[in-house]
């Protein structure tokens, strides 16, 4: 029995956190990365972190390069760290379930000694939000690649070489490309070669392509986005509240079967127009159409309209933080 099992020994793919998103093994200097804070350095001058996009490589974030100087009390509050004297063993571990993800700038990279230094202070708010969104999309694509590679007992790196890495190399967002592909807007497989580089996967290319499409469609079907915009709608003329009601009713007429709108009073005269849908672009377009109808209707009756906030994400699935299992050892589900 032992002999037969060894003859049929299967390839075990790398865990999700052990495989990297991009072709480069190390980030470059001044690159923006997402790091998960793991433990405090022994001398309490910084935190060791894991680079989630680069196969779990370890990096170091000094407290001096965090967003503020951190005292022992502040370390506990900001990073969720155990205070001195309450550690299990020599290493100061983060509280279970409290490991924080941070968007950081790569200050220096020493490939020989495998040392990577980070800075949180150098990342502005706009860059942070842009990176969070890009990381979320890249994480979804990598999870799909990892699942398909695991199913077909193919090395994750080999499948990345055929699908996601060539797209990243050509400055193409794999998430957007796959989304357009499954919607039938383009044929992604015409641009990709499963015979090279690396191992030739032409023999199972058909099965790989089909499973990638199935996994990605499943993701799109599960991901709902909540959007909300705010506007002031009032009328001091003869029509008064009737004009406001009419304008809001006109706005609701912009609803679609796949994107139903709701309008709620926040505080007079501010109203919130919201929707929950699978396609963020469709939701934004639908809310914009509703706002346009409301504006034209209320102004036609002598009322006042003022946009308070454009459509923005108000809830739903957060690509950056929602899937905590991505970074845990239980990824092998």
What does the model show?
The strands form 2 sheets. Strands 1, 2, 3, 4, 5 and 6 form a 6-stranded antiparallel β-sheet that branches. A 4-stranded antiparallel β-sheet has the order 8-9-7-10. It is 34% helix and 23% strand. The radius of gyration is 25 Å and the shape is flat. The chain has helices at residues 2-7, 72-79, 125-151, 156-162, 164-169, 174-182, 205-222, 241-252, 280-300, and strands at residues 32-40, 46-51, 57-62, 92-93, 101-110, 115-119, 225-234, 261-267, 270-277, 304-316.
Topology summary:
Blueprint (H helix, E strand, L loop, with lengths): L1 H6 L24 E9 L5 E6 L5 E6 L9 H8 L12 E2 L7 E10 L4 E5 L5 H27 L4 H7 L1 H6 L4 H9 L22 H18 L2 E10 L6 H12 L8 E7 L2 E8 L2 H21 L3 E13 L17
Antiparallel strand pairs: 1-2, 1-4, 1-5, 2-3, 5-6, 7-9, 7-10, 8-9
Helix pairs in contact: 3-6, 3-7, 6-7, 8-9
């Amino acid at each position: 029995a032992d002999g037969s099992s060894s003859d049929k020994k299967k390839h075990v793919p790398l865990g999700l956190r052990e495989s990297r998103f991009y072709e480069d093994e190390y980030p470059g200097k001044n690159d923006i990365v997402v790091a998960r804070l793991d433990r405090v350095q022994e001398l309490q001058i910084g935190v060791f972190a894991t680079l989630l996009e680069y196969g779990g490589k370890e990096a170091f974030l000094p407290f001096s390069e965090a967003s503020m100087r951190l005292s022992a009390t502040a370390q506990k509050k900001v990073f969720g760290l155990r205070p001195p004297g309450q550690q299990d063993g020599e290493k100061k571990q983060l509280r279970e379930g409290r490991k924080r993800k941070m968007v950081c700038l790569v200050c220096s990279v020493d490939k020989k000694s495998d040392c990577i230094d980070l800075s949180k202070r150098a990342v502005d708010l706009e860059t942070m939000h842009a990176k969070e969104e890009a990381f979320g999309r890249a994480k979804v694509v990598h999870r799909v690649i990892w699942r398909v590679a695991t199913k077909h007992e193919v090395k994750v790196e080999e499948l990345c070489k055929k699908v996601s890495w060539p797209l990243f190399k050509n400055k193409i967002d794999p998430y957007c490309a796959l989304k357009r592909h499954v919607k039938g807007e383009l044929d992604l497989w015409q641009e990709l070669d499963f015979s090279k580089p690396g191992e030739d996967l032409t023999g199972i290319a058909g099965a790989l392509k089909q499973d990638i499409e199935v996994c990605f469609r499943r993701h799109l079907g599960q991901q709902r986005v909540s959007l909300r915009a705010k506007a002031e709608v009032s009328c001091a003329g003869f029509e008064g509240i009737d004009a406001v009601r009419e304008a809001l009713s006109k706005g609701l007429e912009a609803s679609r079967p796949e994107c139903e709108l709701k309008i709620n009073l926040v505080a007079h005269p501010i109203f919130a127009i919201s929707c929950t849908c699978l396609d963020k672009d469709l939701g934004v377009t639908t809310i914009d159409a509703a706002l346009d109808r409301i504006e034209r209707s209320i102004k036609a009756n002598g009322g006042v309209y003022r946009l308070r906030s454009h459509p923005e994400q108000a809830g739903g699935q957060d690509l950056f933080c929602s899937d905590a299992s991505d970074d845990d050892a239980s990824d092998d589900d």
